[in-house]
Amino acid sequence: MIERLSRTIQEERLPAPDYELIAKKLRHIVGDDGVSASGADRLATCRDYWPMGTLWFLEGKAPALPDLVVWPRSTSEVAAVLRLAGEHNIPVTPYGEGSGALGGAVPLQGGIALDMKRMDRVLELDRDNLMVTVEPGLNGARYEEYLNRHGFTGGHFPQSLRCSTVGGWVACRAAGTFSTRYGKIEDMVVALEAVLPDGKVIRGRKLPRTATGPRVDHLFIGSEGTLGVITAITLRIWPYPEKRIYSSYIFENIERALEAIRRLVQAGARPAVVRLYDPAETAHHFPDCEVPAGHVILIYLFEGAAGIVAAEDELAARLAREEGGVAAGPAPVERWLETRFNVSLASKLFRQGAVVDTIEVTTSWSKAAEIYHAMQKALLEVEGTVLATGHYSHVYPEGAALYLTLVGFPPGDKREYYRRLWNAAMDSCLALGGAISHHHGVGLHRGLWMAQEHGQALEALRMIKDAFDPQGIMNPGKLGLGEVKKWPE
Amino acid sequence: MAGVNRKLLLDCALCPNMCRCECPVDKEYGREAVSPSGKARLAHLLLEGHLDWEEDLLEAVSSCLGCRGCRLLCPFPELDLCEELLQARTVERPPGMVLPAAAPYLNNLKKFGSPYGTRPVAQASPQGGSPEVLYFINCTAQANHPRSPQLVLELLEAAGVSYRVMDQYCCGYPAQIWGDMELARQLAEENRDRAAQSGARLLLTDCPECWHTFTARYPQWGCELGLPVVDAATYFLELVQQGRLKITPPEGIGSVTYHDPCIWARVAEMTAAPRELLQHIPGLELKEARPAGRETRCCGGGAMFQLTFPERSAGIARRRLEELPPADAVVTSCPFCRENLQVGGGKVLDLAELLGLAALR
Ligand SMILES: Cc1cc2nc3c(=O)[nH]c(=O)nc-3n(C[C@H](O)[C@H](O)[C@H](O)COP(=O)(O)OP(=O)(O)OC[C@H]3O[C@@H](n4cnc5c(N)ncnc54)[C@H](O)[C@@H]3O)c2cc1C
Ligand code: SF4
Ligand code: SF4
Fold first, then answer.
1. Across-strand partners of B163?
2. B278 shares its domain with B190
3. Which carries the bigger pLDDT value, residue A1 or residue B331?
4. Cα-flanking dihedrals φ and ψ of residue B85, to 5°?
5. Residue B91's pLDDT is what?
6. pLDDT one-digit tens code per residue, B178-203
7. Domain-embedded: residue B128
């Protein structure tokens, strides 16, 4: 059955492993229902939410197929699976909920797709010290629901909250929409437990800080499955916020609005949500908010202790006014809260033959406006692009994240278009000193620009990878660490 | 029958699974292939001819409880994924192909009129005249906890309601989910004829799947039942409000958690009646589950999972039980939930059983 779907990019691993024998051995480790070689399971874990994978799906092709799907239930099972994979020299690609946007979970050389979703327990809620320890396969929305039930919040709300795992967040170095107050995932992780490719288990101390050399467990933040498997995560949590304030402002242009935000965070305020939309996104997302054409909207959501958020809101209002902003009340924030998880347009556009993608980069304040204009221009110049819009979110005293949404109806080959689109985006970003990713990570696709991003540091990262994983069994071809021999054509 | 809405199915296949946190199958199995969008993707590939119907694929696209948890979060208002999957399985799969796990139960259904493999025992039913109520005894309660339909009859008697019993044939829903539309229609026609012959004013059911089948599926199958269908919670609430049932505190039960069955809560939108009924029981404390009401989560008993995938079904029930606060009993209004939620070892009652304790002394 599966042979009817063409393999387009799979790299062969030589000599060809005996997967029947390996499956038999795996069953001893994870039980009969912990291993599958069925077409349904292999197909289902062959890709993530990378648009290239979506294009293959629409063509009825499988980008690359795992030979086996394996579901461990414990750290010791993960360790045994990795030892076995090492013995047989077969690749292992960890799989969360497949919401990754760059092909990180695509099993490029086949082998084992290690589906982490049966490790989804909450292991410990430490109320006194505001920490929780969970297994990596726990779904994000279920994680937050658990904390809310006990009077806490995790503070991490990526748009993919409902379709991603806590382990996936850590592996991809994710950022949630409330990050300006609560921090990114690396600010939330206290300690990790991870299994190295040889089966050894490392555990970080569950303490707020240590000065005992580099934190080895923290190396797994952003490792995207290339160093080993994350098996438990201890995170900071917060009491469920006492108060929330919503406010929004309309500005003539993004430059003035960016100035208002910069001054606010540099003064020390930490709104949970800060989002500044360009004119096109303002018109699209807030049609009922009566924003004059060509103007932009900035929304703030403050939450936490009542006195603190009131002061932050007051300061934000003053700074916005000074930059020419006009208050637009709480309605736009309510509208954002209602619609923030709706990504149905992407489905419809893909179905109608479009190519849709999002690209997020990091910029300093000094280049924040310039990089938006430059990237937008570069993207619209690629033939076929009909839409290149943007917003800023995740702000810091030093700069912000810029998030671009792209829609194209390419006249010719879609993959060729996709390549040109990304070249335009990454070149224009790097030219203005931006970082090529703020939070989606690297996966397969962004590996192409990792050398430009890191320079010599990529070599150092490769050395770390080789030291952890000399056989190169962990998620080969990702993070720009290994050469991809059969690149998708 | 409508067939699959290919456009909607593809929209779902292209979605990054934005509702998977609400899908009990997704959470219990942890398999991409049975995630909401995962099922839609496989169904799409099958319908487009990229894949051939094989057992593992049929099993994957059958791994849906019909609980509509996904609909709570789905941005496509017209999409009812479980119905699209059902259509894909019934209309599009090769004739004669049966899910191995369902085969014995489908045979039972053909032979006995019940998937449980015993011919339902005809209940003594008062004859003559035109009764008020035709009580449809569902196959699941009859097979697993027959005391409960018996109590419904006793409650009707106590309230002085004239009734007749209909208990010979299944509503036909199991036949449809297992892909035998011919059998489903045959059962529907039998039931329609018997309902017409009864001369009753209304048909009473305590099974949400039967209710949904009578009210929504029969018309789709071209077989209108011809009688109004009323659920037991609403009907008993009326009897209590009219003072036709005398309620006293039930012995040994001071507090209950009400588990909303998913079809009652999300399809029938019937969440208030059972709670009102419980409030009529003096001294009874109602503890709410989290989530409850429309946001309830399936007990794992939907789409006959108890029969076809018993271990998974029990696993889903265990997960649901974690969301229920401790109480003297869990009360529910569906024979599948009543059965499945017992995996935790606690006391589980359906409304008739609780009312039996409160109104029949
Ligand atoms: C609609 C949508 C919105 C999104 N919004 C955001 C957003 O707001 N912020 C954001 O940061 N991202 C966002 N993303 C991207 C994506 O959701 C995140 O990258 C997420 O962290 C991936 O989690 P996952 O469980 O789906 O991982 P997967 O996609 O399954 O895997 C991602 C990578 O992590 C590795 N991995 C997974 N689990 C483990 C483990 N236990 N140990 C080691 N490696 C592992 C995999 O091998 C793979 O390389 C969005 C994606 C979508 C589709
Ligand atoms: S049911 Fe709706 S939300 Fe769920 S995967 Fe399908 S389209 Fe997405
Ligand atoms: S109906 Fe229930 S089981 Fe089926 S896909 Fe939706 S949430 Fe999952």
1. B133
2. no
3. B331
4. -65, -40
5. 87
6. 999 999 999 999 999 999 999 999 99
7. no
- B316: CATH: 3.40.50
Q: Of the candidates B197, B126, B187, B190, which has an alpha carbon nearest to the alpha carbon of residue B162?
A: B126
Out of A9-18, A294-303, A458-467, B252-261, pick the least confident. Answer: A9-18
Atom of ligand 1 nearest to the CA of A478: 49
For the Cβ of B151 lying below 6 angstroms from any atom of ligand 2, the answer is: no
Q: Do residue B83 and residue B44 come from a single domain?
A: yes
Question: For residue A193, what are the β-bridge partners?
Answer: A203, A232
Residue type at A21? L
Note the pLDDT tens digit of each residue in B50-64: 999 999 999 999 999
Which domains are seen in chain A, by residue range? 2-118 (3.30.43.10), 122-239 (3.30.465.10), 243-339 (3.30.70.3450), 344-440 (3.30.300.330)
Is B41 near chain A, with CB under 8 Å?
yes
- Beta-sheet strands, E only, within A22-139: 35-36, 68-70, 92-95, 112-115, 122-126, 131-134
Contacts of A1 in chain B (CB under 8 A): 51-52, 54, 57
What share of chain A in percent tops pLDDT 70?
97
**Is B259 inside a domain boundary?**
yes
How many domains, chain B?
3
Q: Is residue B110 situated within a structural domain?
A: no
CATH number at residue B157: 3.40.50.1860
> Tell me: the pLDDT tens digits for A212-234?
999 999 999 999 999 999 999 99
pLDDT one-digit tens code per residue, A234-252: 999 999 999 999 999 999 9
* Predicted TM-score (pTM) of this structure: 0.97
Q: Which domain holds residue B67?
A: 6-92
In three-state secondary structure terms, B339 is helix
Instruction: State in Å: Cα B24 to ligand 3 middle.
Output: 7
**Quick one: average pLDDT of A246-264?**
98
Specify if B155 maps to a domain.
Answer: yes
Does A94 sit in the ligand 1 pocket, CB within 6 Å?
Answer: yes
Q: Which of B31, B61, B92 is the last residue of a domain?
A: B92
**Closest CB to A1 among B12, B52, B73:** B52
The minimum CA-CA distance between B73 and chain A, rounded to whole Å, is 9
Q: Are B80 and B183 in a shared domain?
A: no
What pLDDT score was predicted for residue B122?
63
Q: Examine the fold and report which residue of B190, B209, B238 is the final residue of a domain before the chain moves on.
A: B238
* B88 and B157 belong to one structural domain: no
Counting from 1 in the atom list of ligand 2, the atom nearest the Cα of B81 is 1
Q: Would you call A115 and B18 a contact, using CB atoms and an 8 Å cutoff?
A: no
B48 touches chain A (CB under 8 A): yes
User: Quick one: B210 and B306 in the same domain?
Assistant: no
Amino acid A16: pLDDT: 86
Query: What's the mean pLDDT when you consider all of chain A?
Result: 96
Contact assessment for residue A65 and residue A10, using Cβ atoms and an 8 Å cutoff: yes
Q: Do residues B190 and B229 share a domain?
A: yes
A193 CB near ligand 1 (under 6 Å): no
Cβ contacts of residue B351 below 8 Å, gap of 6+?
A: B206, B232, B233, B236, B274, B277, B331, B332, B333
Confidence of residue B120 (pLDDT cuts 50, 70, 90): low
Q: Which two tokens stand for residue A389?
A: 């819009």
Q: Judge contact between B19 and B74, C-beta under 8 A.
A: yes
Q: How far apart are CA A420 and CA B173, in angstroms?
A: 52
Complex ipTM: 0.96
- Cα A391 to ligand 3 centre (Å): 34
Residue A161: list chain B partners with CB under 8 A: 21
